[in-house]
Structures are given as C-alpha cells and as structure tokens.
Amino acid sequence: MRWILTFTLLFVHVCEIAEGIVSNQTMKSPHLHLFMPAFIGFIAATTSVVYYHNIETANFPKLLLALFIYWVLAFITKTIKLWKFVESEKGPQHLRFCITAMLVILYGLLMAVEVNVIRVRKYVFFASPQKVKPPEDLQDLGVRFLQPFVNLLSKATYWWMNPLIMGAHKRPIELKKIGKLPIAMRALTNYLRLKDAYEEQRHVEDREKAPSIWKSMYRAFGRPILLSSTFRYLADLLGFAGPLCISGIVSNLEKRNETAVAAAAINVDNTTSSGVYFMESTELLENTPVLAVLLFLALVLQRTFLQASYYVTIETGINLRGALLAMIYNKILRLSTSNMSMGEMTLGQINNLVAIETNQLMWFLFLCPNLWAMPVQIIMGVILLYYLLRESALIGAAVIVLLAPIQYLIATKLADTQKSTLDYSTERLKKTTEILKGIKLLKLYAWENIFCDSVEDSRGKELTSLRTFAFYTSMSIFMNAAIPIAAVLATFVTHAYLNEERLSPSKAFASLALFHILVTPLFLLSTVVRFAVKALVSVQKLGEFLQSDEIGDDSWRNGDMSVSLESCKKPTGVTNRKRPRYQLDSYGYEQPSRRQPRPAETEDIAVKVSSGFFTWGNNLSTLSDINISIPTGQLTMIVGQVGCGKSSLLLAMLGEMQTNRGGVYWSNKNRYSVAYAAQKSWLLNATVEENITFGSPFNKQRYKAVIDACSLQPDIDLLPFGDQTEIGERGINLSGGQRQRICVARALYQNTNIVFLDDPFSALDIHLSDHLMQEGILKFLQDDKRTVVLVTHKLQYLIHADWIIAMKDGSVLREGTLKDIQNNDVQLYEHWKTLMNRQDQELEKDTELESQTTLERKTLRRAFYSREAKNQVDDEDEEEEEEEDEDDNMSTTTSRRSKIPWKVCWRYLSSGGFFMVFMMVFSKLLKHSVMVAIDYWLAYWTSANRSNGSSFNSTSNFSTDSNFTTYSNFTEDGDSYNEHQSYYVWVFSILCGSGIVLCLITSLTVEFLGLSAATNLHHNLLNKIIHAPLRFFDVTPLGQILNRFSADTNIIDQHIPPTLESLTRSTLLCLSAIGVIAFVTPAFLIAMLPITVGFYFIQKYFRVASKDLQDLDDSTQLPLLCHFSETAEGLTTIRAFRHEARFKQRMLELTDTNNTAYLFLSAANRWLEVRTDYLGAWIVLAAAVAAILTTGTKSGLVGLGLTYALTVTNYLNWVVRNLADLEVQMAAVKKVNSFLSIESENYEGSMDVSQVPDDWPQQGEIKIQDLCVRYDPSLKPVLKHVSAYINPGQKVGICGRTGSGKSSLSLAFFNLVDVYHGNIVIDGIDICKLPLQTLRSRLSIILQDPVLFSGSIRFNLDPERTCTDDRLWEALEIAQLKNMVKALPGGLDGVVTEGGENFSVGQRQLFCLARAFVRKSSILIMDEATASIDMATENILQKVVMTAFADRTVVTIAHRVHTILTADLVIVMKRGNILEYDKPETLLEQEGGLFASFVKADM
Question: Which of 12, 233, 595, 660 has its CA 20 to 30 A from that of 29?
Fold first, then answer.
C-alpha cells in the first residue's frame, strides 16, 4: 500500500512541476515559487522510496518515525495552502487547486499508513515491539526465486534478476544457481489446492457425477487470473494514450505558427490573483512538451502493467501444470493393471497427458486474460477511430473484422496440418529406428538402399504435409501484415471522397497508430480461440483419465486376515538380521524389521488363496477356482506350460487382478513385506547400485553377497563407471539377461519376508541359472528362512522345492511336495521326468565355451571398447580446447559464449539454395521500402491538404518547404484541388497494393527457403548415416543418432523458418523506423547513441542467460517425462514393493526442478521486455523532444516519425528474443552438420560390376591369405596373419573363447571391418576389390540376434521382391514355419510387428534361417546363430543346415561346441590367431589340445 501511494505521490509531483513551469512561461516575470517547492517535494518523495526500501531490507523499522514526521509536516503545509486557495475563490476548474487537493489526500493516507504500522508492530512508543521474521522461504537459503519477496520497484523491473543474468556471462547458469522454488509455487502446495477444490465438489454434488476440472481450476487459481486481468485492462487503456498524445503533439505543432502570444497576455490580467497565473485544468494538455512527457510516462506505465500481467499468468500457469502433473501421477499409481494390459490406457496416452495436455492447459492459462481483455480493447479502439475519422473509420474497422475469421480459418488449418505432419514424422522415425537397430543386418545383406528409399518415401509424405504447413504459415504471416495496410487504404480513401473536411496529419497518424493497436488483438484472438478449443479437449481427456478404473482396495494391504492363523504370532527368539526402520513419507508406513526364525513345530502359512476367481477386467475369469497355500519360510515353485496363468497367479496374490469371487489372505507380518521380480525386467533410469538397493539403506556386505549370487560382478566390471553407471532408457543399453539379473538382485537385496520371482531364469543361460538357483535362492534366501515363490520352466530345479503348485489352463492341477506328486499323479511325474532329461542333456552339451552371458558381456565390452576409443579422441579435443581457454582470459570465453553462430546460419541458408536466399533478402528490403513509402506519402498528402486548406481560408500560407508550396498555387478553384486529391489517392492505392503483394511474396519466400533447407539437410543426413561404416554405430549411441532425426529435424522443419521470418521482419521494422525518425529530425541521432549502447548490452547479456535457461528447461523436462513412463511401466513392481510414496516424492522434486527452470526463463524474458520497452519509451520521448525543438518541420512528417517511434517499442524485444531463439535453434543445424562430415564406406571397389559373373560365387571355395583385420586404424588388430583354405561345400566350425576374433572373421567376409593386410579370395575373386553392394548381396548370413522388421512376412524374407511365392513357401517349409504362417491371417502377407515382437525368439531365428535360404547363395555364415534359442529350435536349425544346405559352404561360429562336432573342419582361434585347424575327430585325439579341453570340460 505504502509503495503504491508513494508512486502516485511522485506522479502528482511531476504534474505539479509541469503546471508550475507552464504557468511561469505564460507570465512576464519569472516566478520560481510555482515549481521549485514541487521539485523539492519530488526529491523528498524519491528519497522516501529509497529510505523505505533500505529499512525493509535492514528490517529496522524504528527509523520509520523520521518518515512519519515528514508526512505530518507536509500534510499540514499543503492543507494551509489549499485553505488559502479556497479563500481566494479558486476551485476545481483550476489545475493547481486539484493538484494541491490530491497532495493533501495522499499525505493524509501516508500518515495513516505509518500510524497503522506503528500500532500493529508496536514500534517506537511501545516497550515490547513485535519481532518480524522474514518469510519461511527466505530462511531457506536454497530459494533463489525472489520475485514474490522483493519490493514493488524490483518486482516491476525484475531488478533482482540482474546478478543472475549478468553472471551468466562469466559462467554458465547451472541448476544449483537457480535453487529451489518458494513454498507457494511448489507442486505439492498447488496439488493440495487443486485436489481440495476437486474433492469438494464430490461432497457437495451428486457423488456419482464426475467433478468438473474447470471449476476446480477456477477455485484453486482464479484469484491470480483476476489480478492479471486487472493489470491487462490498465495496460490496454494506457495503450490508447499513445495515439491521442501523437494527435495532440502534431495538432499543437500545426497551430504553433498561427497562435499569437498576445491572447495569453490578455488572459493574464483576467486570472491573476496576487500576480500569479492560474491555469485551467484542460490548458495543460494543450502544451506540447507536457504531452511528450505524458506520452513517455504512459508508455512506461503501460509496459510495466503489461509485463506484470504476463508474469502473473505465467506463474499461475506453471503452478497449474505442477498441480496437474501431481494429480496425474497419483492416479497412475492407482491405475488398475488390467487398464494397462488390456490396452484401455496405453503408455502413449499417459505420455500425451503429461507432455501435451498439461502444457495445453498451461498455455491456455497464459492466454486466457486476452479472452476478456481483447474485446474491450477492440471496442475502445473503434470508438476512438470514429471520434477521429467519423464514418470512414468504421469501414477500416469493418475490413479488419471481416478478415479476422480468415485468420481463424488459417489457424485451424495450420493445427490440422501440424497433426498430419506429426503422424508422418512418427512413421518416418519408426522406420529410421528400425533401420538403425538392424543396421548390421542391412549392411550384411546389402539392403541399405531399399530401406533408405522406404524412409525417403515417408519423408516425401511428411514434406508434402510440411509444404501445406509452410503455405498456411506464410498465409498467416501475410494476413497479419496485409490487414492493417488494407484497413488504412480503405479508411483514408473513403475519407477522401466522403468527407468535405480535409484530412489533417494529426488525425491521420493518430488513426494509423490506432490501426496498429487494433490489429494485434484481432490477430491474437484467433490463436486464443484455438487454444481455448484445445484446452476443452485436454480437460475432457484429463477428466476421462481421472475417472478410469483404479486398482482394488487391497484388502491384503489393509490386513483383513479372515483365515485365523493363530500360529502367526511372533515367537520370541533371536532376531536374524535387524533392518533399520525408516519412514517413507507422510503415509507413515514403516518397513517391518526382519522376522525371527520359527520354532520347528509351528506350521505356518504366509499367503492363502481360497476359492479364488480372478479376472483382468473382461469378466472372463483368467484364473478360476484357485485354492492354494504358500508355506512360510519355504521354497514354493509354480510350474506349468506357457500361458497357463502362473504369472497371473502371482499378480492375483499381489492384488493386481480383479477378484470375482473368493479372496487372498496374508498373515499379518508378511503384509507389507514383499519383494517381487517381474517376468519382463524393469529398470529405473539410475545407476546399477540404485537399481539394486531400490531405496533401501546401503549395506556393503549384503550388497556384495547379492551381486555374487546373481553373477553381476563381471558385468559391472565392464561398465565404464562400475556400479555407478547410469542404466535404463537414457543410460546404457544392457542385454535382456543382464537386465533380468539386476531385477532379481533387487528382489534379493530387499529385506522382506516374502520374495516373488516370476521366471527369473527365462533370459539366462544354464550356468547362470544354476548359479542363481544355488547361491541366490537356495543359499541366500533360504538361509534367511525367507518365503520364496518361484515361477519357472526349468523342471530340473523341482527337486529343491519344498512345495510345488502345478497349473494348467488357469487353474491348479496339483499342489504338494514332489513326493506327493510322484505318488498321486504318476503320469504328470513321468511327463516331467522326460522333460527334465531333455534339459539335463542340454546342460551336458552346453560347454564352458561360449555361454549366452559371455556373449552379452562381449557385446557390452565391444560397445565400450569402441566407445572408449571415441571418448579418448573426444577427451583429447576437449583438453586441447581447455588449454586454449586457459591461455585466453575470461573475456574471450565470454565473447565466445555471446557470439552469434554466423557460420552455422550461413550453412543453413546455403542449404536452402542461393536463389531462395537472394529472393528472400531482395523481397524483404523491397517490402519495407514500400511500407515506408506508404506512410511517407500519407504525411506528404495530409501536409499538402493543410497547405491547400489554409489558403482557402486565410491569406497566410505557412507551408515553407518547396515540395509543399508547389501545390499552394492550386488554390483558385476546388476542381483543381480535387484533381490533386484523386492523384494522391491513386498513388496511395498503388503503393498499398504493391505493399500487400510484397507481403505475400516475402512470407512465401522465407517459409519455402526453410523447407528446401530442411529437405536437403535430412536427405544428406540419412544418406551419410546409412552408408557410414559399421564402426560408427558401435561408437555412437543410438539415442544420439535418433535425436538428429527426431528433435533436431523437427526444429529445422518447423521452428527455424518462423523464427527467421520474425527476426528479419522485426529487425527491418526497427531499422526503418529509426531511419525515418532520423530523416525527419536529425537531432534524434544524438539521443540514439546512448540508447544503442544500452540495447547492445541488454541483448548481449540476455542472449547468453536465455540460452542457459532454455537448456536447463529442456534438460530438466526429459527426466520428468521419463519418470512418468518409467512408473507406468513398472507399476506392478512399485506397488508390490509398496514404494509409491518414494516415487511420488521423486516426481514432485523433478516437477519443481523443471518448473524452477521455466519460471526463471519466463522471468528473464520479462527482464528483457521491461528493459527494451523502457528503451522504446526513451526513443519516443527523444523523437518527440527533437520534433518540438526542431522548428520548421512539417507536422505530417512529425506525425510519421512519432508513429514509427511507437512501433519500435513493440519490436525491439522481438529482435532480441528471436535472435536468442534462433541461436538455440541453430544448434540443431550444427549437430546435423557434425554428422555430415562422417566418412562413408567405400561402396565402389576397384572392379567393375560387369566383370563379376552373374552366378558368382558358384562353388563356394574360400581362401584366406595372411589376413590382418582391425576395427579402426586407431585400434589394435583383432586378427593377426590368419590363413585358411575352405573347400567348396565344406561345413566348417570356428570356436574359441570370448574375444578370440571369431566374429571379426565373419565380418571380414563381408568387408565390414578394416582389412589392412592380406586378403580373402572367394571363387577366384579378391573380395576387397568388389563393389560392396555386389559382394554383400551374393553371400548369406544368420546373426546371433534375430532381426525382423515391421511389415509383412514376405517383406522380411524378400525385401527386394525378386522371389516367387513358391520359393518363399519352400523356404518356410525348410525352416518348419510353413504351418504356423499358413494359420496366420494373410499368410505371407501376415503382419510382423516392430522387431518381430509377435513371434517368439526361436521363431524369429527360424525366419532368419528362411531368409538365408531364400537368397540362393553358395556360402552361408552362421554367427553364433543358436546362442539365444532353446534346444528344440536349435535341433531344427542343425537339421536344416545339414539337409537344405548340403551342397553349400557353411561356416559356423560356434556358441555351443556340440554344434560343430559333426563339421568337416574345425578352426580353433585364440587372441586373433588360428591355434588348431583340422577335422574334429583328429583334434579330439590331441591330448592337451584346446578343442579337446573345450569338449571335455562339460562331459
């Protein structure tokens, strides 16, 4: 209150000074007493502001007494003055009387405020003053966002941001620097507000009816929106002061020559009292300098209010988004599993809610004050126009209003086009992802170009859509620029013909400024309406989501133990291992401490299901009539065929399924103590250690034991930072087995009574499974007497089970110990026995040689081996840069950060084509020249009107400029004037018409320049990446490559062109405006100098800070989105562990971090806009003062200059913001360019394709001569001087330990690695000389990981479309897939989903076999092809290779030694050399031979 009163006081003092000076000028002798006291009062009021600010910061209120005394004295003196005025019969008609009355009121109010403060705080005269503590937020040193706590001046100008924005120049802004959010802005605070408002409706209204989200939003966030709207109304009203002041200044200058001072002198006698001149209230506003100052003050205030309005809505929008995110997250944690699994609620939908719908609502809130402010602004504008121009103004306004719906139409078209573009780009990205994931296969089969064309095809569709998008965008920009020209044209032309009265410059330029004001709300209105429609849709989606099914009420968690388990009471005894109790959060549930071992006599049941019927929500029971008991402290195994409901049974016990009948009952102590490892492994985006400890306290000994039990140590050793390496979606990609073992380790590490393991062996090889069973389950868990429930297919472990549950078709077939089953169900036991024997054989055959785990580790090692080499190079570069930086001083790094990336901009523009660049520059310059010409012609026309008009009416012709006097001769008769009138109108119309046409051309050229740049950049990028050597894909993370195709391409496609357009437009507008003002009043250039310096520093500081804050906003958004999708994926695990509270806490932290970054970014934008707006106000003041001081300037030109000065205010901040945006967006072009410099593979070869026989290789004879191979010239060789000879049709096996060079040899056949010495000759041709396409298309390979692409089965077998259906069916028959494919809908055209997920791993591998057979090559290479498949599939594969490929050369890289025992030749490798080379029988006879030891090791 005190601040507002003091600022009003300052304003009244300014008026008093102005009134005094003007009155003084009117009188013959100087009267200093008229303005000097007012000036001293102004200084005193300013001092009081500073004084009060310092008292506030120092928190020492006793000093307020001094202020109080000053207000009392001032109040007394002004009251006496007012009394004297009343005595001398002066009243409200006199300005000085009004000002004095205002001062009396203000001083009285300020006095009252101080008295009240003294009364409340008990200062000064009281013995015990009240201590004032700073707000709670400021006691927490982590809060750096000070906007709510600083004084009014700092709030209005964002002064508190100065240290941050200027500091960014020296060192980048980091998360630490922006600190925490104030309590009132935190997501939790706002969530509670919104939730209360939402729940309130439930109690009041019909309980069944869904509460309204709109009402909740209004109740929770309505007040700040009302405040913002008030600021907005004040700003809009002040906005109209500009045109009115211009009108006043110009008309005063027109009258300046006519008015005689004599009249004023006569006045003096009439209004003197004691020789002092008393001014009428209206007289002050007729004074030109006063109007100039008023214009300046109105602009400053208008801009301050506008920025305050923006800030309040943005802060409220951010608060709303935080609340909505928390609300959605809470709901996700309670979603029923069936919703997710039945596809009613997909991950995509949840991600959309989080990423799109909440943002739509936030943006709607940003724009919503416009909804009610704009109509008022439009009505006010039209009324003022009518006042100035009468009927013709209505025609201009009608043009604007009639063209506005077209804007809306274009806006909706734009939104639709954007949607279809998004669909096409999603399709393109999906294809690109598939290509990058299967790049090795594509290169080996020489299919890169087929798949590349497929992506280009999708890109073609996307570009067609983008073309439409570019067209509509340019139409939108065109309409925005053309509507004011059309309106001005219509108005002035009709005015010329309808009105008798000549158009004066003051009216012309005031109405021109009004048109500029009017266009903005009409242009924005379409955007606001569009956002309102989107917000309605978002709220509907959000409502549906909040009403969707939730999980049951978890009676097991609430402890309804209906089965009386008396024996469950805890017996006293020694505790095995105490677990520290710790609170998880406000729910106050604690992790129970460890149980004590039970005395033998208490037979105990941990979980019991009685007559349970469970469903996934479609009312059909998935599990029916379940009656089971899980004994405490024992190992229970659940077995059965695939799909018989084993996993469902676990989930039913965990309360994830809907119960139709019956129930699940838990003993009291086990209720909150469950660990669970799901079948589909689920990892957090966190370090390995965090994934395993999962929020439990770290216990080194226990952690080590768990890691050993899951054999994770060798894998951890391979990771670059050991167990501190980030894994998960954003981290390092681990293989299935590694992921699964981490999930099992998590379940083992948790100190819970019950452990549920859902098929933990599925992705593990036999050795690991055994180790995990022995060390992990039997030793680690059973020693602890923990209750273990294990779902498995490995029947050989049944002998270890204390209790077995056999399932079939959703119900329990048998329950009991193995002995019970052996006695009671002989048939089942025998069936198990045969299966067990088969699995045992597999175990015997499987040697130590190459287990799947070793392969996984190999892949991991290869990824890091290559990545390390790359990192080394990168590190070296960075070190060099750092050294350079150290040599340079601080200022150079600063200048490097604030430099605009001109080189990248030029690269971008040149990608668009030189003709388009020339067109853009030329049309832009021409357009802005024409725009200036239009306004200049208007000035010329109206000034000529004045000169003609005056010679009609008076003898004095005051036009001095030769241009204007020419027309004063045409005064004799009206006809000649009318001829000139039509001459002016015609020129004006032609200029306006060409201006409109040029607007269209410029808007089209910029958009289509952007489009052609986007087309070329994507095309070059795709070709470079697809033809890059395989090594590039080992070294570069997949996510990084995909980012170039997704985020960066999107920025280049859709964001750079509009930014570029806006930047060039606003820059040229500002330059042309400054040029015009300088032309009209050259004196203005003197004032321009300091303004330019100020502008340079503001933009320099802002760009650097804005870039940092933008990066922070982007980098904090990703973890938040990932956390949501991560939670949705791992719902069952999170709920089983009862860790919902911890995840909620994490979500709130991530939301707050992101909101802090976003708030600072918007505060930085306000900081910039307030400063550029104030600079704009100074420009207007300078232009006005220069015009007043320069005598003899045409009033028309003054009007022109001032109107242009007003537009500068609007565009200065856009120049800087667009520049900052463009700088950020150009980073995308830079990243794409960095990939365009990759070396491609040499596809040509030294031989011509015509020299290669069509049926090469016919025999399949292979000679390897002294071969040396490395992955990269910078790396060590992986094969050293290898020589071998393979006869046509021979079956060759290659084996060796991990890293011995087996796979490298298989890649050398396809020339995928660097062969720097020696050669491979196939059927007489050196393969290094062949064109790559020819070589790779003539050989066949089956890889270890089966790769299928989305599409049809036909496409996967034969993408080149060269084979007949019979040939494909034959291949499927050989691979034993014919019957399965026939059963599919569509047969050969049956659908294959992404990555072939709709087939099992074994089936996928058989498809790969069929694919190899379709290509009738005489050489087949099998690279560990049986590594990831089960025994049955492997047997099929072996059989097929022996029969179907009997006449072909087959080279098998062995994963299991027994697969090559029947080969014609075995090659044993070690460290890149051939160690043994002979028939398998011969090698087995060699005592101490490596091959013999491999085979023996497992017998």
Answer: 12
